[in-house]
Amino acid sequence: MTKRIAKRGDTIQGTCLHLCHAPGGGPPAPTTLPFHASIHARLSPTVFADGQAVALLASAGENAPRHAPPPVLGRQEVGTILLVANRTVLVNGGPVGADGDAAMTCDEKGAPGRVVAGACTVLVGS
Ligand SMILES: [Zn+2]
Predict the structure, then answer these.
(1) Is the pTM of this model over 0.85?
(2) How far is the CA of 12 from the centre of ligand 1 (A)?
């Protein structure tokens, strides 16, 4: 099975569970919030796909827009590619990221998000 390679501008998406202050006061309550981060950090410095730097294990981006209401615990709202299962394609000595790979979000229980790779002419096996 092949997947689209992940690159600059592709996203990490998911939902986060956070303890948030209720609007208007009251005790904090568990709240599910969307997570959407454009991947732009820790990309390959030398390998490009369709003109964009390819994403690697540990490539990252910040959640935007930021969570609202803000969680009680002010975790850094960063997504990071975590798992590139059975990847045999290496870039700069590490596995390359691809559509569907697991990614860390700021979820308080550690539930993963997913890499969502856009259109790309470069595919990798998994
Ligand atoms: Zn979050």
Answers:
(1) yes
(2) 12
Query: DSSP string of 2-62?
Result: EEEBPBTT-EEEEEEEEEEPPTTSSS-EEEEEEEEEE--BS--SS-EETTEEBPBTT-EEE
Q: Tell which CATH architecture fits domain 2-125.
A: Sandwich (2.60)
The domain limits of the chain are 2-125
Give distance in angstroms: CA of 66 to centre of ligand 1.
8
Q: What is the pLDDT of residues 97-117, one digit of tens each?
A: 999 999 999 999 989 999 999
CA of residue 50 to ligand 1 center, whole Å = 30
